[in-house]
């Protein structure tokens, strides 16, 4: 049975329970002495409906996770399965083909051996489908009956419903956390595999980066996996060049907007800045690769640089800096605006000028918030992928010259994962180790930034 | 329209307002106030909330300039010179007319930096020694020196409310002003801290022309020698504090000080 029909079925049952429970609650209400119940009839109705829908949904979710395994087991137990190749890729392909035909996703099998499996598959699928639906209905019925029998005139349906709603909300917020943990776990798993092949010391402190996806996977050359040039490139582009652009411009625009701009102008400039934050990074990438990078190369040529690269770190860094101006400026804007008016008045009443007040009172008072904004911007810049993929090079250079080609961690992750190496080759796995390092660094930056913001908020409340 | 008592001693006016009106947009907040502020006496502005006493106080050092819709008519003179004339340097004015606010507002810097801020921006001290001397003198005058001399590098915001307010007074004194405006300086403080501030005002009297806006009539009676009663944007009555409280000439003043409204 398709998920859509199951979904509608659950809704229908829920609605039925809802109506029945409400009718019952109305009866209580008519029979009660003063026509009042502790809970409104709709709360009784929701209580029953939730007891029908939620257990059923939970079972369906669970079932759709374990049913495919059960189906495959039954198919493998069939006599036709004995002729399958013993292990590996081919066996899996045949099973997949047979399943596709059995579910109607494709018309015919490519491997003749798979044809014999179609019928067992079809049987197993319908077998477990029926079991699933029957159990789901049974659970819905039990849940509904249980809830319905609890309804009484003085039943505290309202508090129960509130509690269920709270549980649902809690579940929703757990999804994000669990996803993060899951991502982290998968990253750690692959990283550990990589470090089994290449020592972490070689990886973290080596200065030569040039993994060869075609080399023998069993015996990788650890000296080609030194990630220092990547870390340097990432820092140089994301944390140095981009910040040299973004910090002064972001800070100054925040000061202008909060202290000088008249309200009409502010109404225009602030959304315009926020639009900058909404431009897809791939568009920035075009801009960097097609406009800025050639311009910088021409400039370098005219200044006498010999053979400048057209994929300079400077181009990527400049555009990335422009991209994160809104992050810096909006955090700075918020924290400057949060400095109490009394502080400004105090300074002005001392005979300080507007710019003295800003420089010596407002910005120092807002500094924690500004610093936190900068840290968030850095963590975004070093995790940024699209601009550097398009505008930076893939050549790992350890150099302090911004006109040279450089590469970043994110560029190499893309290059390694989309390369020709197989998935268990150290060159491919190195992408996970790089991702892991990046994840830890940005996590640390965000953590520190949030702590700083929190402490700063406490100072004024 | 203002009833001025005729038994006042002759004094030289440090500041003098002449028929001053203040508008917020179209709304008239102050209507034709004229008053002389001497150095010899502490002047108190009293009146119910919203009567315009704080607004008027803020015109005396042009703090109303920070409110875009505010407009001032009439003349306010400091040593005979109109402070609203074109070409008047507001920065200089505020160095001469200091202000202490309702809520203590020390900067989130060290105690030392709070005091040295003004002297630094006005270039009053040459070198660290002179600056140290100004800081110590100001804190002594504000009666705070003994309490903080061992922790000048601690944050000013870590002091108690009363200490913070005395720090703000010391900060105002540090630029050596001629007039100090106080806008309900004790309204956020407990009685003991209030008593200390009032003592301090008595000590500073004579050295600076002091104007204090207050909600508390007892406070006005304790600290001031001249009192102006404001009501609905007008200055109703002005005279010796003792006369205003014991022998008011206007019915509205009488009603206010006897607690009929406000």
TrEMBL record, chain A:
<feature type="transmembrane region" description="Helical">
    <location>
        <begin position="361"/>
        <end position="382"/>
    </location>
</feature>
<feature type="transmembrane region" description="Helical">
    <location>
        <begin position="46"/>
        <end position="66"/>
    </location>
</feature>
<comment type="function">
    <text>Part of the binding-protein-dependent transport system for phosphate; probably responsible for the translocation of the substrate across the membrane.</text>
</comment>
<dbReference type="InterPro" id="IPR035906">
    <property type="entry name" value="MetI-like_sf"/>
</dbReference>
<feature type="transmembrane region" description="Helical">
    <location>
        <begin position="130"/>
        <end position="149"/>
    </location>
</feature>
<comment type="similarity">
    <text>Belongs to the binding-protein-dependent transport system permease family. CysTW subfamily.</text>
</comment>
<keyword id="KW-0472">Membrane</keyword>
<keyword id="KW-0813">Transport</keyword>
<keyword id="KW-0592">Phosphate transport</keyword>
<dbReference type="InterPro" id="IPR000515">
    <property type="entry name" value="MetI-like"/>
</dbReference>
<keyword id="KW-1133">Transmembrane helix</keyword>
<feature type="transmembrane region" description="Helical">
    <location>
        <begin position="313"/>
        <end position="340"/>
    </location>
</feature>
<feature type="transmembrane region" description="Helical">
    <location>
        <begin position="431"/>
        <end position="453"/>
    </location>
</feature>
<keyword id="KW-0812">Transmembrane</keyword>
<dbReference type="Pfam" id="PF00528">
    <property type="entry name" value="BPD_transp_1"/>
</dbReference>
<feature type="transmembrane region" description="Helical">
    <location>
        <begin position="164"/>
        <end position="185"/>
    </location>
</feature>
<keyword id="KW-0997">Cell inner membrane</keyword>
<dbReference type="Pfam" id="PF12501">
    <property type="entry name" value="DUF3708"/>
</dbReference>
<keyword id="KW-1003">Cell membrane</keyword>
<feature type="domain" description="ABC transmembrane type-1">
    <location>
        <begin position="232"/>
        <end position="449"/>
    </location>
</feature>
<dbReference type="InterPro" id="IPR011864">
    <property type="entry name" value="Phosphate_PstC"/>
</dbReference>
<feature type="transmembrane region" description="Helical">
    <location>
        <begin position="230"/>
        <end position="251"/>
    </location>
</feature>
<protein>
    <recommendedName>
        <fullName>Phosphate transport system permease protein</fullName>
    </recommendedName>
</protein>
<feature type="transmembrane region" description="Helical">
    <location>
        <begin position="272"/>
        <end position="293"/>
    </location>
</feature>
<dbReference type="InterPro" id="IPR022182">
    <property type="entry name" value="PstC_N"/>
</dbReference>
């Amino acid at each position: 049975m398709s998920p859509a029909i199951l979904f509608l079925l659950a809704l229908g049952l829920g609605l039925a329970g809802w109506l029945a429970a409400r009718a019952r609650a109305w009866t209580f209400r008519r029979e009660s002495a003063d026509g009042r119940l502790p809970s409104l009839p709709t709360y009784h109705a929701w209580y029953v409906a939730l007891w029908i829908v939620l257990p059923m949904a939970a079972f369906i979710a669970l079932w759709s996770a374990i049913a495919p395994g059960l189906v495959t087991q039954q198919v493998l137990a069939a006599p036709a399965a004995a002729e399958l190749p013993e292990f590996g890729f081919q066996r899996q392909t045949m099973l997949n083909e047979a399943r596709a035909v059995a579910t109607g996703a494709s018309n015919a099998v490519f491997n003749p051996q798979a044809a014999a499996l179609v019928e067992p598959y079809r049987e197993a699928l319908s077998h477990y489908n029926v079991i699933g639906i029957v159990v789901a209905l049974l659970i819905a019925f039990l849940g509904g009956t249980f809830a319905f029998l609890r309804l009484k005139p003085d039943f505290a349906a309202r508090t129960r419903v509130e509690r269920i709603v709270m549980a649902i909300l809690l579940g929703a917020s757990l999804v994000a956390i669990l996803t993060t943990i899951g991502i982290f776990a998968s990253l750690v798993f692959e990283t550990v595999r990589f470090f089994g092949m290449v020592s972490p010391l070689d990886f973290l402190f080596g200065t030569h980066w040039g993994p060869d996806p075609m080399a023998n996977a069993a015996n990788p050359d650890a000296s080609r996996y030194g990630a220092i040039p990547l870390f340097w490139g990432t820092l140089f582009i994301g944390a140095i060049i981009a910040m040299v652009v973004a910090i002064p411009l972001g800070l100054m625009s925040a000061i202008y907007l909060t202290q000088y701009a008249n309200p009409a102008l502010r109404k225009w400039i602030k959304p315009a800045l926020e639009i900058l934050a909404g431009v897809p990074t791939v568009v920035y990438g075009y801009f960097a690769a097609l406009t800025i990078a050639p311009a910088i190369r021409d400039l370098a040529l005219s200044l006498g640089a010999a053979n400048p690269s057209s994929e300079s770190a400077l181009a990527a860094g400049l555009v990335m800096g422009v991209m994160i101006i809104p992050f810096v400026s909006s955090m700075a804007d918020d924290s400057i605006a949060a400095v109490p008016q009394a502080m400004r008045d105090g300074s002005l009443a001392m005979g300080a000028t507007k710019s003295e007040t800003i420089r010596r009172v407002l910005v120092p008072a807002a500094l924690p918030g500004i610093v936190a904004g900068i840290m968030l911007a850095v963590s975004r810049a070093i995790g940024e992928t699209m601009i550097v993929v398009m505008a930076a090079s893939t050549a790992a250079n350890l150099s302090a010259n911004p006109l040279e080609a450089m590469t970043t961690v994110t560029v190499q992750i893309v290059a390694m994962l989309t390369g020709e190496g197989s998935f268990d080759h150290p060159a491919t796995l190195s992408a996970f180790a790089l991702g892991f390092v990046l994840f830890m660094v940005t996590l640390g930056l965000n953590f520190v930034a949030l702590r700083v913001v929190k402490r700063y908020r406490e100072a004024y409340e | 329209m203002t009833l001025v008592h005729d038994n006042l001693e002759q004094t030289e006016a440090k500041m003098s307002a002449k028929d001053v009106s203040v508008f917020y947009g179209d709304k008239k907040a102050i209507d034709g106030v004229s008053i002389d502020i001497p150095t010899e006496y502490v002047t108190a502005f009293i009146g119910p909330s919203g009567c315009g006493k704080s607004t008027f106080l803020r015109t005396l050092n042009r703090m109303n300039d920070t409110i875009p819709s505010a407009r001032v008519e009439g003349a306010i003179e400091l040593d005979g010179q109109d402070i609203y004339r074109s070409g008047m340097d507001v920065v200089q004015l505020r160095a001469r007319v200091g202000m202490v606010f309702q809520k203590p507002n020390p900067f989130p810097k060290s105690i030392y930096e709070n005091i040295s801020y003004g002297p630094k921006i006005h270039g009053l001290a040459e070198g660290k020694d002179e600056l140290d001397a100004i800081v110590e003198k100001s804190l002594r005058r504000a009666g705070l020196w003994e309490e903080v001399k061992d922790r000048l590098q601690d944050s000013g915001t870590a002091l108690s409310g009363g200490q913070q307010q005395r720090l703000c007074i010391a900060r105002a004194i540090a630029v050596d002003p001629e007039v100090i405006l106080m806008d309900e300086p004790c309204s956020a403080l407990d009685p003991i801290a209030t008593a200390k501030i009032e003592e301090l005002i008595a000590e500073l009297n004579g050295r600076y022309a002091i104007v204090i806006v207050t909600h508390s009539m007892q406070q006005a009676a304790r600290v001031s020698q001249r009192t102006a009663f404001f009501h609905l944007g007008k200055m109703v009555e002005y005279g010796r504090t003792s006369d205003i409280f014991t022998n008011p000439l206007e019915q509205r003043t009488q009603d206010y000080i006897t607690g009929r409204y406000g």
